[in-house]
Amino acid sequence: MAEPITLNVQRFDPSTDAEPYVVAYEVPVDDAAANEVWTVLKALHYIHRNVEPITYDYNCRWGGCGRCGVAVDGVPKLACWARVEPGKSYRVEPLAGFPIVKDLMVDNARAYDRFVQSDLSIKTYRPMDEVRALDADVWWGKADGSDDAVSLKRFNRCRECMSCYTVCTALNDMNRWDSFIGPGAMMQIAARYLDTEDQSDRLSQAVFSGVSQCMHCGNCTSVCPAHIDIEAVNRKLLDDAVARGLIDGKEAATPSYPLL
């Protein structure tokens, strides 16, 4: 019998508990399963089915939907992608910055509403027979990968897991929820800005949505499960806004913070 996997799971029911508490669960791993890929989600399934019910969110189980976001040892991750190993111990908590519904499930509506309210539908007024082909460099990125960080193909990998919102310095440390739409929604604005078929003034939208409020700490990039360089995207929007005269250059000069 291999050594068990230990998950120290934060439990909390707002309707009955005064404050969160942690319960240590051991997930047994027999020799036949020792070489299998174990994830936080798989371990949570075992606990939920064999020990006691735990509330957590998930859907696709392969990293596509973004619903299983949790903090593993303090770092936001998708539970279905976060690997765990027999004989090791892990701390599993709900994503920070959101109200806890119960246990590991949070209410991320505050962040998700930013996507909905930012009017991200593509605006095009050309007849279909006049629509231009999308520039291959914009979609795929340069052949040498030099601008892959701001290519639409990479933006399309966003899971809307809201991990970037839990570590955003501007939102959580500076409390700029009223002036900054947040990293994920700003990235979606950038995608429309780069799309040659979009007819809206997305750069002005980015300025109105607070692109200059980004602290360029890079935390969003460091936790993104889709490996999108969100900070580079915000920087491009900001630089282009300065070049167009929409933002004063001094306003764009914000302090930088260390990565998580």
TrEMBL record:
What is this enzyme's catalytic activity, as reactions? Answer: a menaquinone + succinate = a menaquinol + fumarate
Q: Which UniProt keywords apply?
A: 2Fe-2S, 3Fe-4S, 4Fe-4S, Iron, Iron-sulfur, Metal-binding, Oxidoreductase, Tricarboxylic acid cycle
- Which SUPFAM superfamilies does this entry report, sorted A to Z? 2Fe-2S ferredoxin-like (SSF54292), alpha-helical ferredoxin (SSF46548)
The Swiss-Prot or TrEMBL record annotates one GO molecular function as: electron transfer activity
Which top class of enzyme applies to this chain?
Answer: oxidoreductase
Its required cofactor(s), as named, are: [2Fe-2S] cluster; [3Fe-4S] cluster; [4Fe-4S] cluster
The annotated pathway is: Carbohydrate metabolism; tricarboxylic acid cycle
Q: Which PROSITE patterns match?
A: 2FE2S_FER_2, 4FE4S_FER_1, 4FE4S_FER_2
| GO annotation (BP), single | tricarboxylic acid cycle
Task: Identify the domain of life.
Answer: Bacteria
Q: List its EC numbers.
A: 1.3.5.1
| Protein name per the record | Fumarate reductase iron-sulfur subunit
Instruction: Name the species this protein comes from.
Output: Eggerthella guodeyinii
